Amino acid sequence: MSTDYKSTLFLPATNFPMKAGLPNKEPGLLERWETMNLFGLQRAQSKGREKFILHDGPPYANGHLHMGHAMNKVLKDVISRSQQMMGKDAHYVPGWDCHGLPIEWKIEEKYRNEGKNKDEVPVVEFRKECREFADHWVDIQREEFKRLGVIGEWDRPYLTMSYDAEAQIVRELLKFSMNGGLYRGSKPVMWSPVEKTALAEAEVEYHDHTSTTIYVRFPVVKGPDAFSGATILIWTTTPWTMPGNRAISYGHDIDYVGVEVTAVEEGSLAVVGEKFLVAEALLEDVQKEAGISACTPFWTGKGSEFAEVVCQHPFHGKGYEFDVPLLDGDHVTTDAGTGFVHTAPGHGQEDYEVGKKFGIEIPQTVDEDGTFYKHVPLFAGEHVYKCNDHVADELEAVGALMKRGKIKHSYPHSWRSKAPLIFRNTSQWFISMETNNLREIALKAIDDTKWYPKSGHRRLYSMVENRPDWVLSRQRAWGVPITIFVNKETGEILRDEAVNNRIVEITEKEGSDAWFDSSADRFLGADYDPNDYEMIMDILDVWFDSGSTHAFTLENRPELKWPADLYLEGTDQHRGWFHSSLLESCGTRGRAPYDAVLTHGFVLDGKGRKMSKSLGNIIAPEKIIKQSGADILRLWVVASDYTDDLRISNEIIQGQVDSYRRLRNTLRYILGNLAEWDESERVDVAEMPELEQWVLHRVSQLDEQIRHNCKEYEFSRMFSAILNFCTLELSAFYFDIRKDVLYCDGQNDLRRRAARTVLDQLFHCLTSWLAPILVFTAEETWLARFPGEESSVHLNQFPTIPANWRNDDLHTRWSKVRAFRRVVTGALEIERREKRIGASLQAAPVVYVNEDYNDLLTGLPLDDICITSGLTLEVGEAPDGAFTLEDVPFVAVVPQLAEGDKCQRCWKVLDEVGTHETHKDLCHRCADVVEGMELPAEAS
């Protein structure tokens, strides 16, 4: 006959399931937050607090979210939520970029499929379709972002195409017009012949491209006698730019050599007896490339000796009757080529700068579609992509070609059409980097900004330090127009505040479509004759749109503030949004619109490859959410080091599922052991056993670390610290030890009350610390204990940790206690493996220590700590064969079986079992606890 004592144990009790079921559970929580207006409750609760504003870099409204979107938005959400939990008012307003070429292309594609010609459709009708397309995708993306658990003012986001935003963009443009920073100039810009528009650097991708290379002779017609009859040899990878050649650049301090060819290889286009000049350091390479087997120097000297030299164009006599002077160029190097640089001022930034410096003509040779104008001799009507061989053939025909070849190199391409770009001289609108000291102001602003990681400072600084003027104009239809008038006679911009105000007011009421739908006199008013002014119809660079978001979002919403505390985007935005926002704000307000900038890497597959349809390695956020839940995706974001590229794969996600399971089990254990908690149980820290005091000390340390991690945006460190705390210090140590006390001690015993007090504190801390990361699970955990219509963990702050929880001396002691325990459990693990014991409670080891350890451990319940039924300390040398660990000196374990009988309630093996008058099969502690309890009938 024996009694079943299970009903007398205080076993965990909770409805919080072990299996999360996140894909099914999360939508219900989203609906709950919507119903209770969680964001509105947060705003009301936060009124008067210090603001923290993370300004959203706008995603583009054209298509479903990819993993990069998800990672970016989750990281933003974690930051805003953590700042909110630290007592700030973190009001997050999401936004969208709605103008620009990608949307325009989609509508053009639709027209092509319908057999329509875009140019025959009224521009306002075309723009209306673009607006509807963007609206459609804003709605879809909004729901996809919300499904990630991202909280924000979703019912009132900012859109670059909203009328108020377009009006503010116009205001910002007109500020540059009024301060003289805006000008129209003719210079080479990155041009897409496919899209027929100028592109900004941020719209350019670099891909490998195979180009035709040519070595070309330019005959010297004027200069020192030593050069008489010689040619200047140039090398270029863009033969199509030869019609635009107007000069040759040399390096002032470079050593040059003139040689006469004395022998050539078979098939070489070099001629015995010809003379040419090249950089001395490149002569050997030129000989090898051109098949010149021998040559004799006839002159050596510095580049400065070419100052008066003039050549004629290789196509002289075929319509190219002009001088080609040699000019001193700082950009000339001896890295490759010949040391002489073919200079076409209309087809390259450096060429343009040299031409401008020396007053060289900048010819117009290439039309917007990439074909040569009709006035270009030899090549009129040909496309620049297709004429390289023809140019080389013509050069060979006139005896100017010394060598033709191929080279594979990195070359600029359009990010949308993927086609190669050209530098093309066109009339465009620019913001000057020098007028109003914009470059200098921007560089100072970069210095004044805090960068995460710090390398972001160097990257943006070098870009701004060397960048050309900002090309603002695009020859497209969908976007904010460049709303200015130019005097036809003088070419001057009309600068009149009354006109500007009318433009802004009309845009605010009717949107920027009004510019295309109205006559000029509507804006000019009665003071100006519309016939005297050109109404500019170019579209603004969309980077100016997004660069102005700070103005129509941060400044125009009183619940926000300017400047933002933080801008956060991928590393590509150093040349994109960070860059354009910096220049726009510095040009109009004299400083950056942000105090800090955080950049993250790109999302790659598990092998470190870029995701692409061709590789079949794309993982969509939707797939992970459906399979595992958004919290798992969020966990992946914070567990990754965002300062580098982030990898994702099914295996990596499974690793996060395992981490999540450990965290969930920790939360479930806490909830189960807090069943029927009553505030009267609470124990003051000074009355607690040392073990509980140590746990609270660790909470204090962790709180300090987490707050620091949140301030410095170190979320992978924060997550790692929480996970390690839950798995190594709580589950594997504290919970393991205190299971006996929680289950078996008397309901009101001090040890049990102290343990439950600590669990209560852990509950509040862990749910709050995890709330910015595991938004759904933290809420589920909170509601399992505190249900209610307006109850939410997201209305909490990180708990304030009392100063008396900190106990560094205790921490030092317990670090050694944990090491001691590790040796004991290591010894008992061998006993279990060898089947000499079944459980650690069957053991009562003897542990040999030195005096210091003995003093340290005296007074501690070592059997409870090591989960044994007894433990004896011996000071002195251990016998041979005792178990030790190399990293824990002065501790050696000799396992022994515990003597006595097994308590049928706590399972400890003790001598006292069997000595209690009433409960013969219990130890004295358990017997005292069950005394007075109603016990089940004994079973035979």
UniProtKB/TrEMBL annotation:
Signal peptide: none
Motif placement: 'KMSKS' region: 610-614
Keywords: Aminoacyl-tRNA synthetase, ATP-binding, Cytoplasm, Ligase, Metal-binding, Nucleotide-binding, Protein biosynthesis, Zinc
Methionyl/Valyl/Leucyl/Isoleucyl-tRNA synthetase anticodon-binding domain sequence ranges: 692-842
Cofactor notes: Binds 1 zinc ion per subunit.
Subunit structure comment from the entry: Monomer.
PROSITE patterns, sorted: AA_TRNA_LIGASE_I
Annotated binding of ATP, by residue: K613
Role noted for this protein: Catalyzes the attachment of isoleucine to tRNA(Ile). As IleRS can inadvertently accommodate and process structurally similar amino acids such as valine, to avoid such errors it has two additional distinct tRNA(Ile)-dependent editing activities. One activity is designated as 'pretransfer' editing and involves the hydrolysis of activated Val-AMP. The other activity is designated 'posttransfer' editing and involves deacylation of mischarged Val-tRNA(Ile).
Subcellular locations according to the entry: Cytoplasm
Keyword Signal assigned: no
Aminoacyl-tRNA synthetase class Ia domain segment(s): 29-649
Chief site of localization: cytoplasm
Family matches, as InterPro entries: aa-tRNA-synth_I_CS, aa-tRNA-synth_Ia, Anticodon_Ile_BEm, Ile-tRNA-ligase, Ile-tRNA-ligase_type1, Ile-tRNA_ligase, M/V/L/I-tRNA-synth_anticd-bd, Rossmann-like_a/b/a_fold
Obligatory cofactor(s): Zn(2+)
Name of the gene encoding the protein in the UniProt record: ileS
Protein name: Isoleucine--tRNA ligase
Lineage of producing organism: Bacteria, Pseudomonadati, Pseudomonadota, Alphaproteobacteria, Sneathiellales
Binding-site residues, L-isoleucyl-5'-AMP: E569
